[in-house]
Amino acid sequence: MATVLWGILIAYLLFWAALLIGCLRRREFCPLFLDSRRTRLFWLATFVFVNPLLTLLYLIFGRMRSPQARPVRLVRDLVLVLAILGFFVNIPGLTHLWMQPFLGRASVADRPAEAHLAVIEASNNTNTFSSTSSGDNSRLACRHMAVIVEGDHPLLHRIGAKLTERLGEIPAVETVELHRDGAFPTDGRRAPDVFVRLVVGNLKETALPYSLKLSAEIGAEIGRAPLHSTHYYQDTHTPPRLNFSLRIEMRHTSSTTGYESVRYTMAAGNIAKDLGEQIAKTLGQWRDKHGLLPELPDDFYGSYGANELPEPLKALAPVPLCSYSGLLTHNETFYQFALAGEVVETIKDMRDAMVASGWKELTSDLESSSINLRFRKDDRQMQIFQLRRREPSRGTVVRTTSSRENSTTLFGVADVLHFGYDERRAVLDGLLVAPVSMERLMLFERMFDKEQQERWLDILEEQPPRDALTQIRLAEMYEHRDRKEQAAAALVRAKALLWAARDDSTLKGRIKRLAKKLGDESLIDDPPAPGDFRDAGFVEVLPGETVELEAGIDEPMVVFCFDGEGEPVVSAVTVRRSDNEDDRFIVEHFQRQKHGSGWGSHGGFGVHGGPWQGLVRQSRQNVSVVWKIGQIATQERFTMNVAIEER
């Protein structure tokens, strides 16, 4: 493609040069301006613009038209219009060829439509750095994202716009907002779940007509908060939400050949594609490992109220970045400030002044390479931390010179006002009222007080066994209350339920630790007995019989049988919605035996919009478990006929 475009461009320039020579040598023209001499000067002037359409007009009305022909005055006006228009448009044939490198630089907001006929050869060298901090049952929140473009270069604006589109395609992401020129979402609202901050630096470009060579360094910082500390903390105030940060450093080089109505379109698309894929991949890994934070009642999110900075911090002249309400918080405000020269003594003075004004010091790390302090006063917590170096950067970098006295260190401040005890207890009480959500209760149980813990135990005891995690938690609570027999029974159910869990490594460790506390490691060594599987809610399927089950969407069904050697086999199937319009559902299936497991997923089949059907055949050694699945009319419910086939 690039060769063709360059061939067309060279051919045009050769044609343009030939016509120019002919115009210089020609003496007689069809007179658009009184006589041939003035008309000749007029046509020579059009060659200066190197405009394909003007060249075409000269060929027809200057070169090919007879000097004795009647002049077409409209041609003169058209030439003048095109000569002016070529400075402001970016359309091949209307644009002056030499103007091409200077056009198409307007902000994306000013250009709702894009068009291009170009090819790009690009290389992106990417480094990524990520970290997470999680407590019990912490989940990933990523429904609402905000992209902050920190800079005014058109390339960065275009990357931000295209990245916003790509992030909106990530499963579980509902909204993505784009904010330009370093602006954050409006203060006073609920905080986004994820902040994406974009910077560009070391940008170099060589622009020729219909050709752009570009190199740039792009940085992206993605996290739950707009500023990232290297220190994370968990306490009774901390919601069950995953703290994370992801830093992407990309070195981009590209060569674009062809027509772009909006400059940098191809390069920005290439960069945004790689950034989006890396962000989606990392969020997907965290989602699979930790799970997603479910929808929560509105009263779990605070009503915003502004905070005033303590006087010791005001003295450091921090610059506010953004301020929001959040999950179990009324205020989350972030600031930045810079200190020159030796900073440790200045930070010590601030710390002493904070303590003197009634703030309790929780953490004080004054190592010059990683300063970090935390304070608390009532329900308000303050963290002051040294920011990591940002590369590339446009004004937010920690710049360090060879002289320590002349260096500048950048700090971040996170000022958070949590719910008070009574307010937090009230919203948690709502989780304990029927009908209960076991998922929400499992998430927030570590924040319960003693009375709520007892109510939580009552709820666990009333629930039929559904998954290993709830039974492990029930066993732990029994053990804590010295009810060892009940703890052992719950642990046996958990062990059986674990046979239907694909990722059991973490839960196995908890079962093992609890069995040691109970003084009976046979609870983990012996395989589950048939009665244990039945107590866990699994359905037994015997050879030669078919068992009919019914399930809804996302509702796992689990059966068990025994192979020819008498070893247990557990098979689980779940029907989920599909993103494929031609195949509305997918079947996820899992099978476990004593010495291994296997899993997979696939679509089903239907006839001309009729009820959906699926088939799963799980074969291991000398036994096969066959699931025949049929949709019930147009509902999201399914019949499942399960049979055992001996091999």
What would you say about this model in short?
Keywords: Membrane, Transmembrane, Transmembrane helix. The chain is an alpha+beta fold and about 650 residues long. The protein is built from 16 helices and 21 strands.
Structural commentary:
The protein is of the alpha+beta class and 647 residues long. It folds into five domains: 2-99, no CATH class; 110-295; 301-419, no CATH class; 425-529; 539-646, Tick-borne Encephalitis virus Glycoprotein, domain 1. Helices cover 31% and strands 30% of the residues.
Number of domains: 5
Shape assignment? flat
Query: What kind of sheet is the major sheet?
Result: 6 strands, mixed
End-to-end distance, in Å? 57 Å
Low-confidence stretches: 393-403
Counting copies of identical and different chains, the oligomeric state is single chain
β-strand percent reads 25-35%
- Give the class from helix and strand content and strand pairing: alpha+beta
Mean pLDDT: 87
CA gyration radius, whole angstroms: 34 Å
How much helix is in the residues? 25-40%
Task: List how many beta strands DSSP finds.
Answer: 21
Adjacency order of strands in the biggest sheet:
1-6-5-4-2-3
Number of DSSP helices? 16
Transmembrane segments: 42-62, 74-99
Protein name: PLD nuclease N-terminal domain-containing protein
Keywords: Membrane, Transmembrane, Transmembrane helix
Organism: Anaerobaca lacustris
